[in-house]
Design brief:
heterodimer; A: about 210 residues; 2 domains; 10 helices; B: about 110 residues; alpha+beta; 5 helices; about 15% strand
């Protein structure tokens, strides 16, 4: 696609953000409506005002959908986020226990795998912690059907809350990675649901055949 | 009790816009109708959040349209007001009428 052709398309990042924040069922029609209005503004006023309009309405749309979800059904969402927090709290020492169990099983320090031992001690625990956080984020996103990203963003904020300000995340890389992993899990679950919804739209008889 | 539910202010506006548009009611046309008649800028997200809430209450029904190139190959979602929705509009109008009846403030603004 040429640069000129790309510019007459809506901003990709804005469209992607609307896509992941809307439910899989809403995304198709919302993105279509935004695209239709974008095309009309391009014809009337040009690409730059159209892109500005798209960003402004995209951000407002995300905010309006999120606030409607929060105020429309706050308790189920709060319950799911609380479950995620409890899972993380109950499994807080899991990464350390997993690495210690691997080290005891393999005894790498007693043979030639000294390098592996050092690597597991220094990098193993953070890696298992990221996998654990993504797993918890995935559970939360699966339960929060239609509000996957909102639920994982709130859970990420809850994980970061003990620091007082999100700016402190810059100084605590491990916690920052945990927050990113939580939100990433929400994005992955949401995109899986989106591709499933598109597949069903293309082939509506698939479910009947199976 | 559901039979006595009144519409919220924006629900009322959206329902009336869909009623005015008839068969042509989908996100873009509803948003433009509201902007043209109320001079109020609303986002597509606010329209869909309200339409979905009205659909959940049984006041609205939706059906998918065909995908079109000017929409990036995405389909429209058309809405129509149900009989229950029309009753809710009438109920809300009656309540508002009864509250405003006899108020001098309306005469002084006309």
């Amino acid at each position: 696609m040429t640069r000129a052709a790309l510019r007459t398309h809506p901003p990709r990042l804005a469209a992607w953000l609307v896509d992941v924040f809307a439910s899989a069922e809403q995304a198709e029609s919302i993105l279509g409506d935004l695209h239709e209005e974008f095309s009309d503004i391009v014809s009337d006023s040009g690409v730059v005002p159209a892109r500005r309009w798209y960003w402004r309405h995209g951000v407002k749309t995300i905010f309006d959908l999120a606030s409607a979800t929060l105020w429309g059904a706050p308790w189920p969402l709060a319950g799911i986020v609380l479950l995620g927090f409890l899972l993380r709290w109950l499994s807080a020492t899991l990464p350390e226990r997993v690495i210690v169990a691997i080290l005891r099983m393999q005894r790498p320090y007693s043979n030639l795998h000294y390098g592996l031992y050092v690597w597991l001690v220094t990098n193993g625990i953070p890696i298992v912690a990221v996998v654990q956080t993504m797993f918890i984020g995935s559970i939360v996103a699966i339960l929060a059907k239609g509000r996957e990203l909102l639920a994982t963003v709130i859970l990420g904020i809850v994980f970061a809350a003990p620091l007082g300000s999100p700016l402190f995340l810059l100084f605590v890389p491990r916690l920052a990675v945990g927050v990113i992993a939580t939100v990433l899990a929400g994005v992955i679950v949401r995109m899986c649901r989106s591709s499933e919804a598109s597949r069903l739209r293309v082939d509506p008889q698939h479910d009947e055949l199976n | 009790m559901r039979g006595r539910d009144y519409l919220g202010e924006f629900e009322h506006v959206v329902l009336l816009a869909v009623l005015r548009l008839g068969d042509q009611a989908y996100g873009v046309t509803v948003r433009r109708e509201i902007e043209a008649r109320t001079k109020r800028e609303v986002s597509i997200g606010a329209i869909y959040a309200t339409l979905d809430r009205l659909e959940a209450k049984g006041y609205m029904q939706s059906r998918p349209g065909d995908p079109t190139p000017e929409r990036g190959g995405r389909s429209k979602r058309f809405f129509r007001v149900t009989a229950q929705g029309v009753s809710a509009v009438n109920r809300t109008h009656r309540a508002l009428h009864s509250l405003t009846e006899g108020l001098d403030i309306l005469r002084s603004h006309s």
